[in-house]
Structure to design on (236 residues):
């Protein structure tokens, strides 16, 4: 099932400014935080050096710029999350997609490398591996896609055949060519599979429930119409 959505709904589901969940994701791990702190410190030192050479006329401007740049460790995640959102919002059209889980398997991915020296004095490179879930989903039209994401404990309940929901993006009005997909929601387990939380999840779940209720009403109305026609034919 594929239902086109309005541009307004698209922009509500993927906001321009980072959400709290997206900010938390881009905050990263302790090494990421330390890297931002180092960048902030270097910028502050450079600004102080520049300030010592410029005149008093532009001094306040340099200090304000330095203050903002020095807080990069704090606002940096907002910037990077907003840029990732912008990658999705550049597509002109989107749609609500529902299919099924076709396959699920686990792989290991190299996330970082460490250099160490063994007992013989030789340089050894150690790969740090992280388990990844590979979730393949598809529908009756033959469309399939595979999303790879960090493995979480809650992913254990996902099995082939379960309904899968996501947002698809395209530059074609008929959504005939899908350019990008969002994180995947498994409603039967209330579980998300994602590498980056693109969607406003509360709004997406609410929308999916409204669509489900609307489809149920349509089916009930069609059944009532068929029953009415059969009774009319019998009376005749």
């Amino acid at each position: 099932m594929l239902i086109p959505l309005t541009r307004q709904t698209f922009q509500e589901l993927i906001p321009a400014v980072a959400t709290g969940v997206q900010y938390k994701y881009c905050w990263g791990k302790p090494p990421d935080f330390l890297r931002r702190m180092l960048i902030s410190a270097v910028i502050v030192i450079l600004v102080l050096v520049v300030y010592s050479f410029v005149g008093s006329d532009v001094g306040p401007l340099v200090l304000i710029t330095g203050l903002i740049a020095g807080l990069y460790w704090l606002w940096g995640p907002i910037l990077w999350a907003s840029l990732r959102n912008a990658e999705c919002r550049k597509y002109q059209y989107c749609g609500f997609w529902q299919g099924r889980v076709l396959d699920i398997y686990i792989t290991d991915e190299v996330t970082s490398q460490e250099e160490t020296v063994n007992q013989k004095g030789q340089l050894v490179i150690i790969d740090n591996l992280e388990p990844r879930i590979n979730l393949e989903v598809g529908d009756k039209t033959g469309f399939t896609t595979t999303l790879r994401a960090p493995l979480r404990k809650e992913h254990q309940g996902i099995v082939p055949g379960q309904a899968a929901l996501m947002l698809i993006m395209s530059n074609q009005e008929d959504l005939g060519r899908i350019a990008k997909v969002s994180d995947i929601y498994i409603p039967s387990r209330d579980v998300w599979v994602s590498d980056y939380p693109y969607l406003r999840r509360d709004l997406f779940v609410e929308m999916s429930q409204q669509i489900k209720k609307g489809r149920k009403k349509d089916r009930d109305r069609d059944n009532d119409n068929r029953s009415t026609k059969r009774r009319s034919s019998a009376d005749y």
Q: What stands out?
A: The CA atoms of residues 109 and 130 lie 5 Å apart. The chain has a mean pLDDT of 88.
